[in-house]
């Protein structure tokens, strides 16, 4: 059989193309695994900080190209709660916005927020599980009493104790007694503490895990194809 230079070049090109495809497949797989690993690292940081799985699971990951292979793949990790993650990764100092003077920090006495639409409010609902100051006033049909002492303050509201726990509106029927029940005395209960700012603790390290995972990608590629 006659062998020509063209045949040798064609065979070599085919081999090189196949080898390049194998390398691309391995690199892409390594990138996808380390990207998922970085997502899991961030999720574990949230759990280790004592925060909820719901917040932990806001971390997402995607490797590119999707469903293909490349000699230059990429990984992308992000959170669907970027403001919270950013605050706890930087140790941000939180201040009032829109000209406000105080941050209103709810105590455990503040009732859990009802479903949307339970109250008619001109103020945008804030994020969280506790009622806002305006919602508390609507809920108890009373005004908050604010006491300021220097750079801090406290906000109370007059309520009565609930028969099954918690607090209820100080209505005439409850304070005077009704249907044979003993009257309940209205008393001020602390609902919010006021402060001019809060320093968030630095709980998350975003750079460290990212650098380790990038190092893993390089080491694994070198070990396989170096």
Coarse structural class: alpha+beta
Spans of at least 5 consecutive residues with low confidence: 1-5, 120-127
Helix content: 25-40%
User: What does the largest sheet look like?
Assistant: 5 strands, antiparallel
Which sequence of SSEs, written as H and E, runs from N to C? Answer: HHEEHEEHEEEHEEH
Overview of the structural elements:
Helix 1 (5-48) packs antiparallel against helix 6. The chain is 39% helix and 21% strand. Strands 4, 5, 6, 7 and 8 form a five-stranded antiparallel sheet that branches. Strands 1-2 form a two-stranded antiparallel ribbon. Strands 3-9 form a two-stranded antiparallel sheet. With 226 residues, the protein is α+β, with helices and mostly antiparallel strands. The protein has six helices and nine strands, in the order H-H-E-E-H-E-E-H-E-E-E-H-E-E-H.
Compact overview of the structure:
The chain is an alpha+beta fold and 226 residues long. Helices cover 39% and strands 21% of the residues.
Itemize the secondary structure elements and their pairings.
Layout: H1 5-48, H2 53-56, E1 59-64, E2 74-79, H3 82-90, E3 93-94, E4 103-106, H4 133-140, E5 145-149, E6 152-161, E7 167-169, H5 172-176, E8 187-195, E9 198-199, H6 207-225
Antiparallel strand pairs: 1-2, 3-9, 4-8, 5-6, 6-7, 6-8
Helix pairs in contact: 1-6
């Amino acid at each position: 059989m006659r062998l020509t230079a063209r045949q040798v070049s064609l065979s070599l090109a085919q081999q090189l193309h196949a080898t390049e495809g194998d390398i691309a497949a391995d690199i892409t797989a390594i990138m996808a695994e380390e990207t998922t690993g970085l997502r899991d690292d961030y999720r574990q940081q949230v759990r280790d900080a004592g925060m909820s799985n719901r917040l932990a699971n806001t971390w997402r990951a995607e490797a590119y190209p999707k469903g293909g292979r490349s000699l230059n793949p990429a990984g992308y990790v992000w959170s669907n709660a970027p403001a919270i993650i950013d605050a706890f990764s930087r140790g941000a100092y939180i201040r009032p916005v829109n000209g406000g003077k105080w941050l209103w920090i709810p105590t455990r006495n503040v009732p859990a927020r009802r479903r949307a639409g339970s109250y008619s409010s001109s103020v945008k609902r804030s994020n969280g599980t506790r009622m806002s100051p305006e919602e508390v006033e609507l809920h108890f049909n009373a005004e908050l009493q604010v006491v300021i002492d220097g750079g801090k303050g406290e906000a109370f509201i007059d309520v009565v104790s609930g028969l099954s726990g918690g607090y209820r509106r100080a209505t005439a029927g409850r304070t005077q007694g009704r249907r044979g029940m003993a009257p309940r005395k209205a008393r001020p209960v602390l609902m919010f503490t006021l402060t001019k700012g809060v320093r968030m603790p630095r709980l998350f390290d975003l750079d460290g895990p990212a650098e380790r995972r990038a190092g893993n990608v390089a080491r694994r590629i070198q070990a396989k194809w170096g």
